Amino acid sequence: MKSYVPAVAICLLLAGLALAWMPPAPKRLSSYDPQVKELLSKMTLDEKIGQMTQPEQDRVLSNPGDMQKYFIGSVLSGGDSDPSAGNTLQAWTDLYDKVQAEAMKTRLAIPVLYGIDAVHGHSNVLGAVMFPHNIALGCTRDPKLVEKIGRITAEEVRATGIQWTFGPCVAVPQDIRWGRTYEGFSEDPKVVKRLGEAAVRGMQGSDLSSPLSILACAKHYVGDGGTSATTAPRPGPVPANAGARLWLDQGETKVDEATLRRIHLQGYISAVKAGVGSIMPSYSSWNGVKCSGSKRLLTEILKQELGFEGFLISDYNAISQVKPGDYKTSVEVSINAGMDMAMEPSDYRNFFNTLKELVTEGRVPMSRIDDAVTRILRVKFAMGMMDKDRSQLADRRLHSTFGSPEHRAVAREAVRKSLVLLKNERKILPLSKQLDRIHVSGKSADNIGNQCGGWTIRWQGQTGSVTPGGTTILEAIRVSVSKTTQVTYSLDGTGAEGAAMGIVVIGEKPYAEGVGDRGDLALDKEDLAAIANVKKTGIPVVVILVAGRPMIIGEALPQADAFMAAFLPGTEGQGVTDVLFGDFKPTGKLSFSWPKSMDQLPLNPNSPKAGYVPLFRLGYGLTY
Ligand code: BGC
Ligand code: BGC
Fold first, then answer.
1. What mean pLDDT, rounded, does the chain reach?
2. Which of 84, 150, 456, 510 has the most neighbouring CB atoms within 10 Å?
3. pLDDT at 339 over 60
């Protein structure tokens, strides 16, 4: 008996230590209610509605006086909403300061919350470090790393003064034909749950009031990744450059509530636990009801059951989709369902006036307005925005670490940990750095834009040199090999004769949202041709796929001696060569199932569809 005592004591000590090491639970947002209440009691109806209204920066600035007239509480920059002075760090910081200075001229001088899609780093700003997109981070299965990425993203966003990102996306994409697949960490809700929580912790930190923290936004609530593919024309506005065809984006998720909870709700459970201050309801519908107008989803499940104390921000013009053609009813239904802030990029005046009318007519109760504004102000208090002693202008000292080598080193680590080795015949990898000559080819070998994908400088991303800084895979190969190794390059794979090794980098060109919905994930003809051109010279071939999702590689795989999936690695190509040349072992595991053919889709272990026979299963990944 006696001998157990020290053991028990040690166990208690260890448990105590473990508790002490656990990240402190973030302060509850409702703990700011006394201050909020006091401020709310001074606010007019117009001032309250202003807090609920979010225009796009360029539209509101082009109407001088509107920030004050409508008491605007928040603005956004959408994917293509850049400063008129260009896209530099300087221009973004100046823009933020200008918007903030406008907000401070309102009667109560409540600072403005500026939101942006910093979805893989501060990805709208030239020279920011662009991290791998979430699909790649999912392959790392590494919450500590994802948290670190969140911290750095927060710091680079703060360097421009901006305090809010529309991320993390905690979608659980069930069908890789969806153009937003790469925005999700995994088709596996367990992975999304863990990494989504880590991302929120990283961005918000343990204390939202830290000047290095930003407000996170879990999106798109809920079931955005569960929509069924359709070729029927879609209701509601269709993006101008949508292309033809098959649709999944903004569609309908037809599952029972148990399935919705088991698969699609998981990321929200953990994000709320991590203290996420905002959540974006989805454009999509659940069993015929728009999520953005569903009281069951927004109020009963999210706010009441999960205890979410932050605020809901609608997606870009999403409110008007609730009852298409009837804006007033759309606003009524959405706000009464629990929407707290409206992203109305250009129609913000209309939103403001419509909501005011609805309140005056008693169709939206004043208690709902007070609840919405309370939730928004809680966040502003929690972020130290209401602290009179604190400047709300950008802290330009942070410019010195923007896109710094230290930040890039973390992105590089993320790249090498996310690579998934699918094939390695005759142990051809790792490559020697002493080879006489390596011939590199393929459309994504020397293309930082393709590496970064969508949501990079432009909404849709851009092929080619989209941003300065960073390293393409070709450049990374050049700096990795020995002085005596010759590296030659051709886009189409010609000229490989006589090389010791061929490396072909292929995949998808950038896209975002519904524009990327695709009914055919076959490799481009030019990609197959590049592989064939190298292969026919008889040298060994390493294929690297740079794409937003698994693709149909049946034709290419037999041609490749080694095949590596890099997904969308971002700016740091050296993460690829770290593994290629054996400085690090590959450790990435697939975050999505890899189909053999299109007719297998949707394919994932969660789907009730019989027969899970992928080319590579979820979690697959070789090493050496
Ligand atoms: C904006 C994006 C937005 C999209 C919605 C684009 O013009 O730049 O931020 O997501 O429209 O369709
Ligand atoms: C997207 C959101 C994004 C918003 C603002 C929408 O089109 O669905 O993910 O946060 O635009 O750019």
1. 95
2. 456
3. yes
**What is the widest separation between alpha-carbon atoms in the chain?**
80
Strand partners, 502: 439, 541
Q: What pLDDT is attached to residue 451?
A: 98
| Closest ligand to the CA of 224 | 2
Own/partner pairs, 30-39, CB within 8 angstroms, 24+ separation: 30/309, 30/378, 32/377, 32/378, 32/381, 32/382, 33/374, 33/378, 35/381, 35/386, 36/374, 36/377, 36/378, 36/381, 37/374, 39/108, 39/110, 39/377, 39/386
Which residue from 80, 220, 458, 511 has its CB within 8 A of the most atoms of ligand 1, so it is best to mutate?
Answer: 80
For the Cβ of 317 lying below 6 angstroms from any atom of ligand 2, the answer is no
pLDDT number for residue 13: 56
**Residue recorded with tokens 């006086």:** 65
Lowest mean pLDDT among 229-238, 501-510, 562-571: 229-238
Q: What is the pLDDT of residue 9?
A: 60
Q: Whose CA is nearest to atom 11 of ligand 2?
A: 316
Residue nearest to atom 6 of ligand 2 (CA): 316
Distance between CA atoms of residues 460 and 369, nearest Å: 35
Q: Is 275 in the pocket of ligand 2 (CB under 6 A)?
A: no
For the purposes of burial, counting CB atoms within 10 Å of the CB of 11, is it exposed (0-12), middle (13-18) or buried (19 or more)?
exposed
> Among the atoms of ligand 1, which is closest to the Cα of residue 77?
9
> Would the pLDDT of 238 be above 90?
no
Considering only CA atoms, which of 603, 73, 598, 146 is closest in space to residue 313? Answer: 73
- For the CA of 169, the closest atom of ligand 2 is 9
Compute, in angstroms, the gap from residue 117 CA to the centroid of ligand 2.
Answer: 7
Ligand positioned closest to the Cα atom of 184: 2
List the residue whose alpha carbon is closest to atom 8 of ligand 1.
79
Of the candidates 154, 149, 155, 185, the residue with the CA atom closest to the CA atom of residue 169: 185
Residue 553 has a CB neighbour count (10 Å cut-off) of 28
Q: Cis omega (within 30 of 0) on the bond before 222?
A: yes
Mean pLDDT, residues 255-266 = 98
Q: Answer whether 217's CB lies under 8 Å from 166's CB.
A: yes
The answer to whether the CB of 336 falls within 8 A of the CB of 311 is no
Q: Which amino acid is at 406?
A: E
Question: Which atom, in ligand 1's list, is nearest to the CA of 317?
Answer: 5
Picking from 587, 505, 455, 516, the residue whose alpha carbon sits closest to that of residue 130 is 455
Give residue 505's pLDDT. 99
Q: Is 513 one of the annotated active-site residues of the chain?
A: yes
CA distances, 386 to each of 29, 30, 67, 85, 258 (Å):
14, 15, 18, 29, 41
- pLDDT score for 2: 47
Query: How far apart are alpha carbons 342 and 72 in whole angstroms?
Result: 11
Query: Among candidates 93, 134, 90, which has minimal Cα distance to 116?
Result: 93
Residue 503 pLDDT: 99
Average pLDDT of the residues in 176-205: 98
Residues pairing with 206 in the sheet: none
* DSSP per-residue codes, 12-31: HHHHHHHHHHSPPPPPPGGG
515-525 tens-digit pLDDT = 999 999 999 99
Q: Which of 513, 561, 572, 578 is catalytic?
A: 513
Residue 360: count of CB within 10 angstroms of its CB: 10
Atom of ligand 2 nearest to the CA of 78: 12
